[in-house]
Amino acid sequence: MINENLKNANILIIDDQDFNIYVLEGFLRLLGYTNINSTTNSGTAVCMFKSFAPDLILLDLMMPPPNGYQVMEQLKELIPLNTYLPILVLTADITAEARQNALAGGARDFLSKPFELLEVGLRIDNLLFARYLHLQMQDQNKILEEKVKQRTMELQKTNADLIASRDKAEASDRLKSEFLRTISHEIRTPLNGILGIASLLAESKLPEEKKLEYVDLMHDSSNRLVSTINDYVDMALIGSGNVNVNCSTVYVSNLLDEVKNKYYRQCKAKNLKLSLLLPEDHDELTILTDHTLLQKALFHLMDNATKFTIEGNITIGLSIEQDTIGIFVKDTGVGIDENAKELIFKIFMQGETSVNRTYEGSGLGLSIVNGIINLLCGEIRFESVRGQGTTFFIKLPLKQ
Questions:
Q1: CA atoms of 193 and 1, how far apart (whole Å)
Q2: Are residues 335 and 378 in the same domain?
Q3: How many domains does the chain have?
Q4: Which of 392, 276, 373 is nearest to 330 (CA)?
């Protein structure tokens, strides 16, 4: 009877990543849970809580605002006093600070990504069993509540001590912490999707169309993971001075056509107009440079343009001066804040710098572009207006 009640429990999943929800929903249904609801929009958490009345919440921390901490704060006002509603935090942030902030904020348990699905299932069983016992013995839990209260106070005190210690840390320590958070999030999140979907694909009972859908999600996660690792390797090579520049004759028009063709489908999928502006008699224009490095720099600029442009157009252009050529990438995206312009070429920097930023990514792209253009004896600058768009200009010598 108890097991049947647990399988009928209402489980709410709040995570901004589609593949994480696919993995968790598929796994829970394999375990026999029937009442599952989910959302990738944390802003709807309160409404879903009121209408769905969950017995358990699976919550991500690092989401676009409101993040997981803010969601827990909102739910506190809706959960009746002396009611045990378990929240299991599943996050890529493995720092002790994150764990203690989450537990102090109302979470009953905490798992770091990538996690083992078997462990997730066991923890869910335990939390739901505790919820069941609480509902059956609500009048006899005063001792338990006192222990939880005491533990919460201890965690709050510990958290306050950690915050005080953090405030005294030097700037180099903060940079190291930011690096660890960024690499943890950008590697563990797609890795969690790959491992989770692999577990689901092992189930022979899955329909063929579901398997194809999971394979596509695994492919996307793999590409994101490879791209992140490549960025860190490129940044390390550039920073250590171990990049070889192999100059050859490059037909500029062909190179820009390659860049346009690579991003054509991506722009079309977002209803963005992609244009290529070339001067007359440009077909035979060549420069002596490293084709691979210049192409990589332009790819990073296009990655940013497509990522930060919601509507409008993206333009790739070329201009010719006496001894130099100019290449520009222009978008009608969100633009760059004034206070971020001086730091935009620094490592791990975006217009938003926290792990809860709206746009994902390692924050290394523009640092890599800047390093590559310096290696090619060129210059890079940009113009940007917040809410109107950004244009990056590259100037390269016709001959190295």
A1: 34
A2: yes
A3: 2
A4: 392
